[in-house]
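An example makes the point: we let one protein speak, the chain in one-letter code, the fold tokenised, and here it is:
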Amino acid sequence: MPSLSVFDLLTLHDFVAGLPADRVQRLAAAGRPVFRGTGHRLFHQDAPADRFWLVQSGTVAVDFHVPGRGHIVVEPAGAGTVVGWSWARPPYRWRFGAVVAEDVRAVEMDAVRVRAMIAEDAELGRELTARLLDTVSDRLQAARHRLVELYAYPGATP
């Protein structure tokens, strides 16, 4: 069976659904398909944010480090989600961390190239920003629920 192109993978992903084909084609030039095995850390909190992932299959655990407690999972991110939004705004450093919880196939996007595309195409910038804001909102809501859960049930495990 022939493998799908990056363009094909992007057209199948919820994050870019509905974008005009010419913009998806431009984005495809900044992406590459990747496989990451369970346990692979995609990024650490506070490290430089130079890429992001559009998850095709598997699960990534978005987490943050709490001294004395270790990494606390905020939210599992599965197929159809975007992992990483810190690349979009200075200082371009990860606000959370992420580790592969279940083998992942994704399109890894070069954030520096995508930022350059956004600088050249204001409409693309507005559209991607709106989509990222949805992701940020969902992630912050998940963090809030997780913190309530931890404080409401002090014996809960991270």
